[in-house]
Amino acid sequence: MPSTSTGLSRPTPPTLELPVLQGASQVLQEYFVKDSQIIPDIGDLLVLPGASSSASYSIFPDDYRVPFQKRRLIGIPEGLFQFYNSTSSYASCDFTLTHFHSTATDVVSHMGLLSEIERVWVAIDHKLFLWDYMEGQDLSSFVDQPDVITHVAIVNPKPGVFVDEINHLLVLCTPLTVMLLGVSATDVLGPNHRTRKEIKLFDLDMSMPCDVEMISVAGTADGRIFMAGSQDGHLYELHYQEREGWFGRRVQLINHSVGSVQSFFPRFTATRGEDRVVSVVSDPSRNLFYTLTANSIISVYYPTSSKSVQLSQTIQNLYKLAQEKAPGSPTITPKHFHVIALHVITQEETRSGLQLMAVTVNGIRLYFSSSNSPYHSYTASDATRIQRSLQLVHVRLPPTNLLHPDEQSNPYFSSGATYASRHPQSPPTSRPFVLSELEHSVYSAGLTIAAHPGDTDGTDFLLCTSPDLTRIGTLGQTHPQSSQPAGTSFGTGSGPQRPPLTERAALLAIPGRTWGMAALPRPKNTVPLFGQDSSTLMPVVTNELAYQFLEPPRQFLVLTNVGITVLGKRRALDWLRDAIEEVQAEGNVQPIIDFRDSFGRDQTCAMLLALASGNTSLEFGEQSIGGTIINLAPELTNVAKQAFYDCGERPMWAERMTYGTSDGSGTAVFSGRREGLAIYFARLVRPMWKSKLIKPGTSGPHSNVPEDILLMVQRNLEALHNFLEGNPHLFHSTTGGYSSARAAPASDQEAWKAEQKSVAELQALLARTIEGVSFFLLLIDHRIGELIGQTDGVTQKLIISMTFEELITGQNGVVVSRALVNVIIDQQIGQQIAVDTISDILQTRCGSFCSTGDVMIYKAKESVRRAVESRNAQERQGYLGESLRLFMKGARIMEFDKLREIIGDYQQLDFAKGAIELPLQCADALDSDGIGKEYWQTVPTPGPLNPLGGQGSGTNATSDPRRIAWEQRSNCYDLILDSLEAFENKLAAGGDAAERVRAHAYELAFASTDEIFHSRLYEWLISRGLADELLEMRPTYLQAYLQREPGTLDKYQLLWQFYVKDGQPLRAAEVLATLAESSEFSLSLSQRIEYLTLAVGNAKSHPVSAGGKHESAVAFLTDLEEKLDVSQVQLEIFHTLSPRLQQQPPDPDLAEKVELLERGLFNITELYQVYADPYDLLTIKLLVLHVSQHQDEALVKDIWNRVIHETVQGVPPAEALDRLQGKLVPLGQRFHGSDSSFPFRHLAHLLVEFQLTNADAAPPGWAVRVLARCGIAYMEIWDVFHQMYESQVPPFCQQSSIQTLSAAICVLFQDWLEAERHSPSEYFPADRIDSAVEQYLRELEVSDAQKATREGYERVRRELRRFW
């Protein structure tokens, strides 16, 4: 065994690793299951095919293995003897004492046990005394009735009849009456911190005269009282109610044997010779009771209505039935086959259907089951529906080789004796003790004790039996016992597959004659024997290996005429402790070896660990539940520790080969030390591990597991933890097992590694469990029901369904514990109590449930509270600054609801720094790995394709796991915006201080380097109509925000304005162009044209040398201008076609195409092919040709021909002249100068030809004046007309046409001269005009028709010569 470490300091709790804890918890679960299986149900051992009887016993001559031990004798109080004279003599169950207070009157006395209230009742004539045997000499009395008391019993009261304080009733039986007394029994703290019962008696004025003396009283769970009549042997019921009624008296005696009517009349006849009921036994869990007659007939009853019962079954001929089960047994004889007692086998004790045990005078035990199936489960509710017949299923024969008590050896042997000699031995044939006169018996949890008269006066022998776990259990024993238990089975067939029931049996001698026996109730709030639900696997009640670490040994009280003998069940733990004491005293290790061979290596190591580390239940005897840790003497502890190491052996490695391959793998087979640790740990926490934390109550939720049990578990776990911390070498490998010539094999090294890893996980869970229990006890101290009520609904649901295992090992446990701690701290702050104390307690007692970060937050809250209370501004700022510092350190674990509450406090206190910086810190801390930021960057909301360098691509994935981190960041940013709004609202109320706080808040917000926050901030400001102010500021991340997807109309609007203000007109033009051409935004055509117009303007503002991109800027501007021109054509098409939508019938195709004009921009080709040509829009065609500069002389001439034709078609000449002028002048003004859309010469010919055709209606200068109004220069018009004048080409070869042209030229000259006089041009061809006038005058006809023309020419010549 390696040297012992001296380091006992408790390390700082490690980082919480839930997978490690959950893995260790699974190990505990494995041992929960094993504990429910290693010891079979007693019913399974008795109800076996082919084994209807048994007589297998382990008889040992040594004190070590005797199943029971006499603990102490409590003498009868001296105070009772004042009622007797010195010559008192005792006889049987009652005794007569002569002489009382110097008189010769006989004194009649009876005694009995009332273990439910920890009293012995003693009746001396009519006086009743209650002896508190726990205190030794304390007596209480009742003397207010005149009759001799012959029997006293204790029963439950009926609900609602008496005051709540009365929780028991005493039934006093005399030869003439039956009387009820109320008892209030309460637990009080006695000496040595042990609880005792304090009682009060109440005279209920309830008594019933009777002519039969009552014996054997039994009460049901609901308060009904049944009893047997001594003289007639009938079954009676004492019925009582709260008050007298019309149909019933307050107290009635009902005879169920002959009918209730007879009980109202006095008995005048003697009892007939029928079989008499001598015993009544209640079975509260099944709502049944049994009767036993003098002839060993058993009847089963179940109560029906309030005054009636139903006989369910009568079992007769028990002698014959027993013979059938054990044919040939010499023990079953008519002379000795007499049943003396019935004992109920509760449902806690067996799951196989066993229900009743009967004991005969010679020690035969008869077991009855309610079902043929050994695995039938019988519940209390079944009794109200189905009465299953009881059947005798097993006969347990008495031991035939019992050792006389005188032959039991001394507990300690000489050093020369070897423990190996103490295996079951055949007792000396001279004195085998044969049972024949059993008088009293008691049964509890598989343990049976019966009293037998001794072979000397004033002495009784006690037959003690208990299951031999080493014979019936599967404990991993490696060596069989050296000899088989003594006993012979009768009537068995081939034998069962499972081992039969084997019991340890012994006779113990006690002083006095026995008057009563009782099992001490299990301590209150002790470990439950049933799980909370059917899925919880619980060890059977006889598996003391599982229960011995958490409760004291079972004890029995035997009342004799000399006092009370306390008998204790010796557990395996007590046996092992005695073995260790012998090893320490004599150096003989054989006792421990024998113990290991009997109970198995792993179970032995678990018990050695308990002895070495200390336990609350090590003392063999009375002990309060949850008491202090009991440690062995240091020298015994060292023996236990050494034995734990040596018995545990080494871990092994089990190889597993895969067939067909050379690869192999394996698993570790752990040592007994690791298995013992796991077993002991599992047994310590089993009472709470799978239990719910809370259960509902009338005053709200409260702890589901009693606080005493939690304290007991905690103390045992702490003792184990301290022991392991102080002895880490116990699980380390040594070289002692290998020769010096070779090292440990690699496989063994792997086994050691696996074991140390497993032990480390168990130790981590151990430390966490200790803190978990401490944490829950702290919650109880702070009124857990109120704490739960202050948590949110989700947390409350988690707590209601949560088990201790989940609290300690689950993620929900972390969530719940943090929520509850927050409530506790809030309570402290609300009560203006400093949180340092509670924080220190949490850190010390349950550090893993309250991290350093948690403490920081709690102390920060305390600083906030002090700031609220402070009246000094400087001091307040100091507290707030300190709170911010602490909150920033705990930002990673801060819950959002708490953060929101803190920010609300900061807002109220005008602490802008905290309101802005703390949420920013929390946003970074909650997204420390950056996945939320990554989500923001890569998964934007769907938007238009962003050509401006924006971040991100893809679609919005709500199922993306990174979204949660992003939402946490977003929630923090919302708090900052809420703070800014709060400061804005305060500013609206006025005050310079509010302005300073607001300005400081914005300053801190804009100073942040968190780009994501800036985006949220800009978005918030824009939504509040502060876009212009934002543009004026132009903060660092504004451009990136405006460029970021998703692009919106507002963001693009602001972006181009940002570029303008930032001196980047070309980039502004790019944004505007993108807007104009976007198909994602719902823009009108006029808005798109506006954006293009602005784009052109900004592009023209771009400096020539800016960025060295002059050529590309010019190309971009040219493109913009062309798109603007095309968009104008599109707008005109829209205005042209829109009126047509009102035409009937409607044209769906037209409506759709008109709508498309508003959705986006078309190119010039699309406009011509889709709109101008299909709808024959002549003007639009001209506009398209004009904008596109497309040269097609034939097309353009055809268009103009159709324009003129459509204008004058079907119109009188005079009107046609006006309409044609109105049509052509706007077109000419728009298109003249464009060769592609305005063929001037062709139009001039068309106008002259129309004028010649309509010469009578058209004035001489009509054509030239139409052209002049189109904006064509006089010189160009003159050139074209002069060419026609000189051309002699038809129709200008006719004199009339020539004269018309001459008249038109004359008007042209006159208008030209008039225009020159008002606004002279740089060049005016006066000489050329003068020469031409001479020519025109010469060639002009001399006639009246041309007189006006001649005069006009002459006037032109005069003016030319006058002014030029």
Automatic annotation (TrEMBL):
Q: Name one GO molecular function term.
A: structural constituent of nuclear pore
Q: Which GO terms describe its cellular component?
A: nuclear pore inner ring
Q: Name one GO biological process term.
A: transcription-dependent tethering of RNA polymerase II gene DNA at nuclear periphery
Q: Where is the Nucleoporin Nup133/Nup155-like N-terminal domain?
A: 84-564
- The segments labelled Disordered in the record are 475-500
User: What is the annotated localization of this protein?
Assistant: Nucleus
Q: Where is the composition biased (Polar residues)?
A: 475-491
- Report the Gene3D superfamilies cross-referenced here: 1.20.58.1780, Nucleoporin, helical C-terminal domain, Nucleoporin, helical domain, central subdomain, Nucleoporin, helical domain, N-terminal subdomain
Q: Give the source's domain of life in one word.
A: Eukaryota
Identify the main location.
Answer: nucleus
Q: Which key words are in the record?
A: Nucleus, Transport
Annotated Nucleoporin Nup133/Nup155-like C-terminal domain ranges read 671-1345
Give the family from UniProt: Belongs to the non-repetitive/WGA-negative nucleoporin family.
Protein name from the UniProt record: Nucleoporin
